[in-house]
Amino acid sequence: MSEAIGLTIQRLLRKIRFLGAVEDSFGQALSALCTDRAHFARGDLVIARGEPYRRIYLIEQGWALRYKLLGSGGRQITNYAIASDFLCFNAALFRHADHFVMARTELVAFTLPIRPFLQILNDKPEIALALAWANAQEEAVLAERLASLGRRNAKQRLSHLFCELWQRLDRLGLADSEGFELPLSQDELADTLGLSLVHVNRTLGELSRQGLLSFRHQRVTLHDVAGLERLAGFDAGYLRDQPGG
Length: 245
What we know:
By secondary structure, this protein is an alpha+beta fold. It is 46% helix and 22% strand. The strands form three sheets. A four-stranded antiparallel beta sheet has the order 1-8-3-6. It has a four-stranded antiparallel beta sheet with strand order 2-7-4-5.
C-alpha cells in the first residue's frame, strides 16, 4: 500500500471507527482499486448535473463543493468534501448525477472504477455497511444544514457551520486547537447558508466583536469554542454517532 493511499484510508478509518477487526481487509480492498489518481485545478468541474457517472473518487487532498444551480441563476452549496471523503458515491446506485461537484482548490483524488467497487461491496458486506454509514453521516450533515436554513438566524448559521467544520477537520488531523484553514470566500459561505454577501460580512464582524472567532486570509481562528457552540446550539453527536446493535 502506497504512503498516500495509506494516509487517506487511515483518515477514512478515523470516521468509521467501529470497523475494528475488518480494518485490514478494508484497507487492502480499497487500496487495490486506488491505483490511479485524478488531478483537478481550482474551478474544474468533477461532474455536472445530468452527466453519467463514470467513476467514484476518494479525495486525497483538497476541497470540493457540492451544489445545485437554480432556474433563477442562483447557487445553493449543499456541502463541502474534504480529504478522505468520497465524490460521486451515488454511482453505486444511480446512473446520472443530480448535482454539480467542483474543485474549490487544487484537488487530488484516487479514482475507483464503479463495477469493481460494487463487487467489493457485494463480496464484503462489512465494508458495505461501513461505507453506507459514512454516507448516512453526510445525510445527517445535510439535515443540520436544512435546520440552519429554516430555523437558525445568521449568527447561529455561521457559528454552527464553523463548529462542524472544525470537528470534521480536527478528526482528520487538519485542524488545531486554535482553528483551521478554510479555502472559501464569503460569497461561498453566503451560497451555503442562504444569506446575502452583505449579511455574511456583517455577521462575521459581529462574531469577531463578540470575541468568538475571526476569519481572515482563509483561516478561521476560534477564540471561544464553548461560547460559539452555545450560540449555535451545536451538538457534535451527528458527526460521532456509530451504528447500534
